[in-house]
Amino acid sequence: MAHPSLKITYFDMPGRAELTRLALFVSDIPFEDERLTGEQFGARKPSLPFKQLPTLTVNGEVLAQSHPMARYAASLGGLYPAADPLAAYRIDEILAANQDVLNAMIAAMFTRDLDKKPELIKELVETKLPQMLPCIEARLPTTKYFLGDKLSLADIDLYLSYTNLSSGKWEGIPKTLVDGYPRWKALSASVAAHPRVEAWNAKHPAH
Question: 108 with 56: CB under 8 angstroms?
C-alpha cells in the first residue's frame, strides 16, 4: 500500500516532534524532516493552524498537535492498535502520563518568576517527580515491550521520556533520578537496541 506524502515541520531538536519522527522512521515510512530556525518559524507562524510547531503535512494538508500526529504516524506503521480500543487506551494513558511529567518539568524550569525557580526545581525533584514516576513504573509490564513482544508507540514514548529524564540536560535533575525504575529502564534499553532506533540515533548524534 502506498503511503501518503508526509512532512514533519519542527525545530532542529527532538522536542515534541521526535515521537512522530521515530514512529515513522522505525516503520520505514518515508517523510520529509523539515527543521526550521527561529527566524523561519516567525515568518511562518501566522499561517500555522495553532501558531505553533510541530506540524504534520499529509498530502498537502497541514495538521497539528503532537500526540494526534504521533498516533496517526504510528497507525500507518502498525505501532498503534486502532482496531483494539483497550490496547490503544493503554498506550494513550502512557502518553498522557509522560506529558504530565514533561509539563511539570517545563513549569518549574521555565517559570517567569526567577526568584522562585530554585524552589520550584527543588519541589519538582524532591516531591513531584518522586510521586509521578513510580506511577508510570507501576503500569509497565515485565515483557520486552509495553504490549508484549511487539514495539508500539508507548515504547517509543517511554524511551524518549526516560532518555530525557536521564540526560543531565535539565537543571537540578540528576541523571540517576530514573535509575530506581527497573521496568522502565529495561524497556527503554530494548527500544534503544532496536535496529531502526540505533540507525536514527546514528544519523542524529546531537540528539
Answer: no
